[in-house]
Amino acid sequence: MSQLHWFLDDEKALKRFKIIRELSQQFSNRAALHDTDSSFPHENIAALRQAGYVSWTVPEMYGGLGLSLYELLAHQEELAQGDGSTALAIGWHMGLFLNLSATDALPEEVFAEVATTAVQNGWLMNSCATEPATGSPSRGGRPQTTARQVEDGFLLTGRKTFSTLSPELHWILITAGIEDSEDVGEFLITGNQVQIVETWNMMGMRATGSHDIVMENIFVPHRYLVARLKPGEKSPRNRDGGGWMLHIPACYLGIAMAARDFAVRYAAEYRPNSLAQPISHVPHIQEKLGQMEMKLLSARTLMYDMARRWDRASKSDRPTLRPALGTVKTIAVQAAMDVVDLAMRVVGAQSLSRSYPLERFYRDVRAGLHNPPMDDVVLRMLSEAAVNEIQKTRNSDSRLPLF
Ligand SMILES: Cc1cc2nc3c(=O)[nH]c(=O)nc-3n(C[C@H](O)[C@H](O)[C@H](O)COP(=O)(O)OP(=O)(O)OC[C@H]3O[C@@H](n4cnc5c(N)ncnc54)[C@H](O)[C@@H]3O)c2cc1C
């Protein structure tokens, strides 16, 4: 294992990782400011563009690097150690390219256009599907955004909430109910067609620019209707089992790693005058530091293991990984919240200080609970997968009793 990164051993990947580490260090200097103002870190996005990062997950045939999921997670974790908001925001764009490459969900010429503009112009992309009435789109509610068919295309009207990266989006994937039909369309629109309403004022992940976007009769030509789904039908983007969404646990684990580093440094250096040595020598502090290490190591090992499995899996096997990939997210977010909590207990009352980053980490990791997949969905998927598997083998495995 490399000293630079526990899970990365490929030389080219490590070289890229060094670039990301440098950027992450720069981002950490501005993170508190953007958090306070809930302002969008445009300069961080510009630096990521300048470094070419925004094209690293674009397939090689369009000029990108065709990065693996495994390597992407290392960079995303590292960015989150500097600024969680920047990592989550750019993570959607980076992950979407993996998702679209793995699923062929866009018509080829449309994907070529999106990919080429990411490489040549640094144009960014996200999927904005959440609405006030549907809540999480993963629950399957019909979007209230409407698409009215007109000659040559559609007119879209509606409002999306939680639109991360909105101040920098060029391409936006939008879901809309198609008028006079039960179908739902997935459309590709451009950032300059929408109005951004700056509503994002949450306690955590304040610099993600996850504002509302409003569409009023915006015209979308037929070629940008990228999928038309019957009620209950899943988007073609679901074909890959959701590996790309591991950018979410990578982000929250990165925040937790930053909290760990802060607490360890504090424990190694802080010596109140009641002690002859720094608090890192006190048994209850050692126990907390040990627990933080254990939680991080187990959650990260699971995440990188599943990423490797997803990278190596065939297209037809990837959907079967969905429950295990969801498990990574649930376990990682819980571990991240536990680690930040332990870090704050190690530091004591100073952890509450606005002069230190721990209180921001505490607010930021909490947002992970509300990114997909939700915990109840993961548990249901695991339960269904276990029952299905046992039912399939009940006649062939004589160790299992028949009830
Ligand atoms: C930092 C951040 C960034 C985000 N970025 C994006 C983005 O870029 N694009 C995007 O589209 N979305 C984004 N989201 C939105 C996210 O994907 C969810 O849609 C959003 O958080 C709402 O989810 P929810 O579970 O709170 O809401 P709801 O679905 O309204 O759920 C509220 C409560 O009701 C329960 N509930 C609701 N419906 C059901 C059901 N059918 N079955 C069981 N329980 C149910 C939930 O478990 C929850 O307890 C982001 C969210 C956050 C926090």
From TrEMBL:
Residues 25-110 form the Acyl-CoA dehydrogenase/oxidase N-terminal domain. Residues 128-217 form the Acyl-CoA oxidase/dehydrogenase middle domain. It comes from the Bacteria. InterPro entries: Acyl-CoA_DH_C, Acyl-CoA_Oxase/DH_mid-dom, Acyl-CoA_Oxase/DH_mid-dom_sf, AcylCo_DH-like_C, AcylCoA_DH/ox_N, AcylCoA_DH/ox_N_sf, AcylCoA_DH/oxidase_NM_dom_sf. GO terms for molecular function: acyl-CoA dehydrogenase activity; flavin adenine dinucleotide binding. CDD domains: ACAD (cd00567). Keywords: Flavoprotein, Oxidoreductase. Residues 249-368 form the Acyl-CoA dehydrogenase C-terminal domain. PANTHER family: ACYL-COA DEHYDROGENASE (PTHR43884), ACYL-COA DEHYDROGENASE YDBM-RELATED (PTHR43884:SF25). This is Acyl-CoA dehydrogenase. It comes from Alicyclobacillus tolerans.
